[in-house]
């Protein structure tokens, strides 16, 4: 047992990313049933849909699960009310100031975790009273840090400065990656891309297959002027790059982005016009498999790698 398994009352220190359009109740409950912590991604759900997924998740698992709430959500007050009404015990917050909701949630007896991309924000989250942080390197898919700090350097830097548990995220999809993150000082890992390419993920089959086909160098961090996001290079990405090439304004970028691009790509399967958010580690994902198989593979590889490391001599 370590700090993270203790904090969430789970078997393995493996947390599933609360990814928009990928993380419905089927994925969250499957991860929790396998011994990790599943998260419902609230960012892509209307309030009534969010409530429905929480209720279905409760029926699908008797293990702990949580929700991920991006602070940028327009009607966040409604989501927070639903979380309290449905007696959700664990909340991951992201993309905003942790001070805004942490005390409200803690007063209700809820465990709060905040996602950060720098030591500065890790310290702010700790000061706000969160129970743990997710330190996410810029290898990660989706919305990301502007500073482009990698997981390899971020985890030990954060570890030096804070006392609360650290969950490493960004570029982790294997047992070896998990061992590396824990060796660097993390207490647990969060994986998004690997769980997006599972049978239980709510993503479109076209997107899942694209993850499997994604190779090294096929993703890029862009749109820093709006909100930095790592996505697969496709027609939409090329359209964004054309705006940059033409020295376009922020408004020009907003016009190209438009609305519902992520839904179009990840949920509806439009591989040309959609925003296909995935991490660099997609280059190590070779097949769509079940959540149970993901756990079996990661845990077996973790043990093998651990034994190999102990045989090193210098």
Keywords:
single chain; 314 residues; 11 strands; 14 helices; TIM Barrel; alpha/beta; 8-stranded parallel beta sheet; 3-stranded antiparallel beta sheet; globular
What does the secondary structure layout of this molecule look like, with pairings?
Blueprint: H1 3-8, E1 14-16, H2 25-33, E2 38-41, H3 47-60, E3 65-70, H4 76-85, E4 90-94, H5 99-107, E5 111-116, H6 119-128, E6 132-136, E7 142-143, H7 151-161, E8 166-169, H8 175-183, E9 188-191, H9 193-196, H10 205-213, E10 219-222, E11 229-232, H11 235-245, H12 250-257, H13 261-267, H14 291-310
Parallel strand pairs: 1-9, 2-3, 3-4, 4-5, 5-6, 6-8, 8-9
Antiparallel strand pairs: 7-11, 10-11
Description:
The protein has 314 residues and is an alpha/beta fold. The chain has a single domain (3-203, 282-310), classed as Aldolase class I (TIM Barrel), CATH 3.20.20.70. 44% of the residues lie in helices and 15% in strands. The strands form two sheets. An eight-stranded parallel beta sheet has the order 1-9-8-6-5-4-3-2. A three-stranded antiparallel beta sheet has the order 7-11-10, with no helix packed on it. α2 packs parallel to α3 (47-60), α8 crosses α14 (291-310) and α11 packs antiparallel against α12 (250-257). The longest helix has 20 residues, at 291-310. The two termini are 30 Å apart.
């Amino acid at each position: 047992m370590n700090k993270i398994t203790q904090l969430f009352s789970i078997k393995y220190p493996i947390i599933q990313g609360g990814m928009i359009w990928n993380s419905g109740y089927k994925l969250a409950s499957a991860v929790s049933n396998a011994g990790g912590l599943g998260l419902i991604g609230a960012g892509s759900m209307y309030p009534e849909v969010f409530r429905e997924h929480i209720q279905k998740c409760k029926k699908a698992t008797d293990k702990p699960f949580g929700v991920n709430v991006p602070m940028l959500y327009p009607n966040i007050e409604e989501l927070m009310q639903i979380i309290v009404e449905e007696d959700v015990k664990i909340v991951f917050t992201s993309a905003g100031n942790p001070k805004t909701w942490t005390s409200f949630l803690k007063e209700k007896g809820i465990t709060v975790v905040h996602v950060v991309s720098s030591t500065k924000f890790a310290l702010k989250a700790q000061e706000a009273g969160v129970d743990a942080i997710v330190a996410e390197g810029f290898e990660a898919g989706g919305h990301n840090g502007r500073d482009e700090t990698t997981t390899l350097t971020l985890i030990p830097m954060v570890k030096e400065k804070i006392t609360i548990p650290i969950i490493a995220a960004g570029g982790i999809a294997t047992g070896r990656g998990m061992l590396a993150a824990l060796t660097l000082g993390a207490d647990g890992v969060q994986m998004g891309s690997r769980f997006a390419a599972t049978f239980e993920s709510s993503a479109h089959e076209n997107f899942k297959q694209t993850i499997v086909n994604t190779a090294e160098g096929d993703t890029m961090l862009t749109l820093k002027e709006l909100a930095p996001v790592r996505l697969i290079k496709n027609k939409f990405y090329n359209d964004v790059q054309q705006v940059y090439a033409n020295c376009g304004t922020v408004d020009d970028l907003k016009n190209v982005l438009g609305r519902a691009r992520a839904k179009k790509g990840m949920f509806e399967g439009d591989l040309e016009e959609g925003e296909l958010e995935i991490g660099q580690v997609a280059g190590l994902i070779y097949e769509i498999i079940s959540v149970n198989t993901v756990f079996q593979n990661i845990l077996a590889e973790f043990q093998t790698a651990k034994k190999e490391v102990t045989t090193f001599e210098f």
